[in-house]
Amino acid sequence: MRDARPSRRVVTRGHVVRGACRFFLRHGTVDMDALAQDLAISRATLYRVVGSRDALLADVLWELADHLLERARLRRTRAGVDGVLEITRYFVGALRGSAPFEDFLRTEPETARRLLTGGRVHRRAVLAQRSILLEAGERDRLWSRSGIDDLAYLYVRVVESTLYAELLSSRRPDLALAERTARAVLQQTCGTSPRAG
């Protein structure tokens, strides 16, 4: 005889993050009550799976940023310093051109500052930039692996100063200044490792 008990639906973090990304793209925020309704789960289940709204928002922001970074990497046509800057230029332009992202920065500046310039989003951005630097400089060994972590961290901070200028200093983003600074940082650190013979 078959068991008549209803099967219990398993709700994974990945399922919730994907749903939250769709919600964010529609609304420029994540409302936990509305998201739970969208996903047809209880609010208690939602919090059990993700822990907190901040943790979920951090995952959403990184998921969307990572998607844009991947597109930027695929569009890269140059190597070395110019290739790195090309990726950054596309990424910054796409992110700043995103209406949901701009809405989030405008309506939740404190949350945005907390999540975007520290914690998991920042750490993931540094790791992604490390990978971009290694990939772009691979042929000519432009950057030493021993200093790549510090370089990735510094580069991300330069980019953040433009992306989140309004949050950090109430200034308008100066993309040209940021690119000049980023180029100087990359060029200053080029050639710190031995060239392949």
From TrEMBL:
Alphabetical list of InterPro entries matching this protein: Homeodomain-like_sf (IPR009057), TetR_C_36 (IPR041485)
Domain of life: Bacteria
Domain (QsdR TetR regulatory C-terminal): residue spans on this chain: 79-186
Pfam families: TetR_C_36
Name of the protein in question: QsdR family transcriptional regulator
The organism of origin for this protein: Streptomyces argenteolus
The organism's taxonomic lineage, starting at the top: Bacteria, Bacillati, Actinomycetota, Actinomycetes, Kitasatosporales
